[in-house]
Design goal:
Layout: E1 3-7, E2 10-13, E3 18-25, E4 34-39, E5 46-51, E6 58-60, E7 68-73, E8 78-83, E9 92-98, E10 101-102, E11 108-109, E12 113-114, E13 118-123
Parallel strand pairs: 2-13
Antiparallel strand pairs: 1-3, 3-8, 4-5, 4-9, 5-6, 7-8, 9-12, 9-13, 10-11
Length: 124
């Protein structure tokens, strides 16, 4: 059974940067697509970014495109999310997802494996 553990969240001021990590154990991630989602207090969970198994294809939500960069290191069994130019609207718990798929319309359908999340707070 794969386990996913996120880290790297914290408190940052507007315009700052954070790098999140999602470390997997119990199973190799190398054959699987992965993604980041976030959920702000009182709001629904939303898709943030997706990366395919090789790292050669990625997709981003409009709200983060150009500011966030998703990447992965299959040798380290870890996925990352570099977040730059953070805004208060980025405040949320960020969770990683393993094993989803992307449709021809570039819509990501989540897989069944989730981490418990890491909290990102951006102060104004």
């Amino acid at each position: 059974q794969v386990q996913l553990v996120e880290s790297g969240g914290g408190l940052v001021t507007t315009g700052g940067s954070l790098k999140l990590s999602c470390a997997a154990s119990g199973q190799s991630i190398k054959d699987y697509a992965m993604a980041w989602f976030r959920q702000a207090p009182g709001k629904e969970q939303q898709f943030v970014a997706y990366i395919n198994w090789s790292g050669q294809k990625s997709l981003y939500a409009v709200a983060v495109k150009g500011r966030f960069t998703i990447s992965r290191d299959n040798a380290k069994n870890t996925m990352y999310l570099q977040m730059d130019n953070l805004e208060p609207e980025d405040t949320a718990t960020y969770s990683c997802n393993l094993g989803g798929s992307v449709s021809a319309a570039d819509i990501y359908t989540q897989g069944s494996h989730w981490g418990s999340g890491t909290l990102v707070t951006v102060s104004s």
